[in-house]
Protein backbone atom coordinates (compact mmCIF):
# COMPACT_ATOMS: atom_id res chain seq x y z
CA UNK A 1 0.00 0.00 0.00
CA UNK A 2 1.48 3.33 -1.06
CA UNK A 3 2.30 5.82 1.65
CA UNK A 4 0.44 9.10 1.62
CA UNK A 5 2.67 12.02 0.60
CA UNK A 6 3.80 14.24 3.46
CA UNK A 7 1.96 17.50 3.36
CA UNK A 8 4.22 20.56 3.73
CA UNK A 9 3.65 22.66 6.78
CA UNK A 10 1.83 25.88 6.13
CA UNK A 11 4.10 28.90 6.20
CA UNK A 12 3.31 31.91 8.34
CA UNK A 13 3.15 35.10 6.34
CA UNK A 14 5.32 38.14 6.97
CA UNK A 15 3.25 41.00 8.33
CA UNK A 16 2.61 43.84 5.88
CA UNK A 17 3.13 46.84 8.12
CA UNK A 18 3.11 50.59 7.49
CA UNK A 19 6.52 52.20 7.52
CA UNK A 20 8.16 55.50 6.67
CA UNK A 21 11.69 55.29 5.29
CA UNK A 22 13.56 58.53 5.91
CA UNK A 23 17.17 59.28 5.03
CA UNK A 24 19.26 61.69 7.07
CA UNK A 25 22.87 62.82 6.98
CA UNK A 26 24.44 62.34 10.43
CA UNK A 27 27.66 64.26 11.03
CA UNK A 28 28.96 63.78 14.56
CA UNK A 29 30.75 60.66 15.71
CA UNK A 30 28.60 60.58 18.86
CA UNK A 31 25.28 60.38 16.99
CA UNK A 32 26.80 57.84 14.59
CA UNK A 33 27.76 55.61 17.51
CA UNK A 34 24.30 55.77 19.06
CA UNK A 35 22.84 54.59 15.76
CA UNK A 36 25.47 51.90 15.22
CA UNK A 37 25.46 50.50 18.77
CA UNK A 38 21.87 51.00 19.98
CA UNK A 39 19.39 51.89 17.26
CA UNK A 40 18.52 48.55 15.67
CA UNK A 41 18.03 46.73 18.97
CA UNK A 42 15.94 49.65 20.25
CA UNK A 43 13.84 49.72 17.07
CA UNK A 44 12.86 46.07 17.53
CA UNK A 45 11.94 46.68 21.19
CA UNK A 46 9.88 49.80 20.44
CA UNK A 47 8.00 47.99 17.69
CA UNK A 48 7.34 45.14 20.12
CA UNK A 49 6.01 47.58 22.71
CA UNK A 50 3.84 49.56 20.27
CA UNK A 51 2.48 46.71 18.18
CA UNK A 52 3.48 43.17 19.01
CA UNK A 53 2.58 43.01 22.71
CA UNK A 54 -0.91 44.24 21.83
CA UNK A 55 -1.38 41.17 19.65
CA UNK A 56 -1.42 38.99 22.76
CA UNK A 57 -3.88 41.25 24.57
CA UNK A 58 -1.56 42.93 27.09
CA UNK A 59 -3.17 46.35 26.64
CA UNK A 60 -2.70 47.63 30.19
CA UNK A 61 0.96 46.60 30.30
CA UNK A 62 1.66 48.12 26.90
CA UNK A 63 -0.09 51.39 27.75
CA UNK A 64 1.96 51.70 30.93
CA UNK A 65 5.25 50.97 29.16
CA UNK A 66 4.42 53.37 26.31
CA UNK A 67 3.67 56.14 28.77
CA UNK A 68 6.95 55.64 30.62
CA UNK A 69 8.96 55.43 27.39
CA UNK A 70 7.37 58.59 25.97
CA UNK A 71 8.12 60.46 29.18
CA UNK A 72 11.77 59.31 29.19
CA UNK A 73 12.26 60.31 25.55
CA UNK A 74 10.56 63.69 26.12
CA UNK A 75 12.73 64.43 29.17
CA UNK A 76 15.90 63.58 27.26
CA UNK A 77 14.80 65.72 24.31
CA UNK A 78 14.12 68.66 26.64
CA UNK A 79 17.59 68.34 28.20
CA UNK A 80 19.25 68.17 24.78
CA UNK A 81 17.31 71.21 23.56
CA UNK A 82 18.15 73.23 26.67
CA UNK A 83 21.87 72.51 26.29
CA UNK A 84 21.73 73.26 22.56
CA UNK A 85 20.05 76.60 23.25
CA UNK A 86 22.65 77.45 25.90
CA UNK A 87 25.54 76.68 23.56
CA UNK A 88 23.93 78.53 20.65
CA UNK A 89 23.69 81.64 22.85
CA UNK A 90 27.37 81.21 23.76
CA UNK A 91 28.17 80.95 20.07
CA UNK A 92 26.19 84.13 19.29
CA UNK A 93 27.73 86.02 22.22
CA UNK A 94 31.16 85.27 20.78
CA UNK A 95 30.17 86.41 17.29
CA UNK A 96 30.68 82.97 15.74
CA UNK A 97 28.83 82.37 12.48
CA UNK A 98 30.81 79.46 11.03
CA UNK A 99 29.68 75.84 11.11
CA UNK A 100 32.20 73.03 10.58
CA UNK A 101 31.97 70.34 7.98
CA UNK A 102 32.73 66.74 8.96
CA UNK A 103 35.23 64.39 7.38
CA UNK A 104 33.09 61.23 7.50
CA UNK A 105 29.35 61.96 7.76
CA UNK A 106 27.07 58.95 7.40
CA UNK A 107 23.81 58.42 5.60
CA UNK A 108 21.25 57.13 8.09
CA UNK A 109 18.27 55.26 6.63
CA UNK A 110 15.65 55.27 9.39
CA UNK A 111 12.78 52.80 9.17
CA UNK A 112 9.89 54.37 11.09
CA UNK A 113 7.63 51.47 12.06
CA UNK A 114 6.00 53.07 15.11
CA UNK A 115 5.49 56.57 16.58
CA UNK A 116 8.05 56.02 19.32
CA UNK A 117 10.70 54.96 16.83
CA UNK A 118 10.10 58.32 15.15
CA UNK A 119 10.55 60.05 18.51
CA UNK A 120 13.89 58.37 19.13
CA UNK A 121 15.12 59.15 15.61
CA UNK A 122 14.41 62.82 16.32
CA UNK A 123 16.37 62.44 19.56
CA UNK A 124 19.39 61.20 17.58
CA UNK A 125 19.11 64.12 15.17
CA UNK A 126 18.92 66.54 18.10
CA UNK A 127 22.06 64.98 19.58
CA UNK A 128 23.81 65.47 16.24
CA UNK A 129 22.77 69.14 16.17
CA UNK A 130 24.02 69.64 19.73
CA UNK A 131 27.38 68.07 18.89
CA UNK A 132 27.78 70.37 15.88
CA UNK A 133 27.33 73.47 18.06
CA UNK A 134 29.68 72.04 20.69
CA UNK A 135 32.33 71.20 18.09
CA UNK A 136 32.03 74.73 16.70
CA UNK A 137 32.74 76.24 20.11
CA UNK A 138 35.67 73.88 20.63
CA UNK A 139 37.25 74.68 17.25
CA UNK A 140 36.84 78.41 18.00
CA UNK A 141 38.53 77.92 21.40
CA UNK A 142 35.49 79.01 23.40
CA UNK A 143 35.35 75.72 25.34
CA UNK A 144 38.34 73.61 26.33
CA UNK A 145 39.41 70.33 24.83
CA UNK A 146 38.86 68.50 28.14
CA UNK A 147 35.36 69.90 28.60
CA UNK A 148 34.38 69.07 25.03
CA UNK A 149 35.65 65.48 25.22
CA UNK A 150 33.79 64.79 28.47
CA UNK A 151 30.59 66.49 27.33
CA UNK A 152 30.54 64.55 24.05
CA UNK A 153 30.92 61.28 25.88
CA UNK A 154 28.29 62.10 28.51
CA UNK A 155 25.62 63.05 25.95
CA UNK A 156 26.32 59.98 23.85
CA UNK A 157 26.07 57.80 26.93
CA UNK A 158 22.81 59.47 27.98
CA UNK A 159 21.10 58.33 24.78
CA UNK A 160 22.64 54.87 24.93
CA UNK A 161 21.54 54.40 28.55
CA UNK A 162 18.03 55.48 27.59
CA UNK A 163 18.01 52.94 24.75
CA UNK A 164 19.20 50.21 27.13
CA UNK A 165 16.43 51.03 29.62
CA UNK A 166 13.76 50.77 26.94
CA UNK A 167 15.14 47.47 25.64
CA UNK A 168 15.19 46.09 29.21
CA UNK A 169 11.56 47.13 29.78
CA UNK A 170 10.46 45.35 26.61
CA UNK A 171 12.39 42.23 27.55
CA UNK A 172 10.68 42.11 30.94
CA UNK A 173 7.29 42.40 29.26
CA UNK A 174 8.32 39.65 26.84
CA UNK A 175 9.36 37.43 29.77
CA UNK A 176 6.01 38.05 31.42
CA UNK A 177 4.31 37.00 28.18
CA UNK A 178 6.29 33.76 28.20
CA UNK A 179 5.27 33.13 31.80
CA UNK A 180 1.63 33.43 30.74
CA UNK A 181 2.11 31.11 27.76
CA UNK A 182 2.25 33.81 25.07
CA UNK A 183 5.99 33.86 24.43
CA UNK A 184 5.85 31.95 21.17
CA UNK A 185 3.26 34.38 19.81
CA UNK A 186 5.56 37.32 20.54
CA UNK A 187 8.57 35.55 19.03
CA UNK A 188 6.70 34.73 15.84
CA UNK A 189 5.26 38.24 15.62
CA UNK A 190 8.79 39.69 15.89
CA UNK A 191 9.98 37.31 13.20
CA UNK A 192 7.09 38.17 10.90
CA UNK A 193 7.63 41.90 11.41
CA UNK A 194 10.92 41.65 9.52
CA UNK A 195 12.60 43.94 12.01
CA UNK A 196 15.11 41.32 13.11
CA UNK A 197 16.73 41.09 9.72
CA UNK A 198 16.31 44.29 7.73
CA UNK A 199 19.20 46.78 7.64
CA UNK A 200 18.69 50.15 9.33
CA UNK A 201 21.63 52.13 7.97
CA UNK A 202 24.68 52.05 5.77
CA UNK A 203 27.08 52.45 8.68
CA UNK A 204 30.31 50.51 8.97
CA UNK A 205 31.86 49.22 12.18
CA UNK A 206 35.40 50.55 12.02
CA UNK A 207 35.14 53.45 14.45
CA UNK A 208 36.69 53.22 17.93
CA UNK A 209 34.18 52.77 20.70
CA UNK A 210 35.56 55.00 23.46
CA UNK A 211 34.69 58.56 22.55
CA UNK A 212 36.78 59.98 25.37
CA UNK A 213 40.03 59.31 23.50
CA UNK A 214 39.16 61.26 20.37
TrEMBL record:
Residues 191-214 are annotated as: Disordered. This is DUF1845 domain-containing protein. Residues 203-214 have a biased composition (Basic and acidic residues).
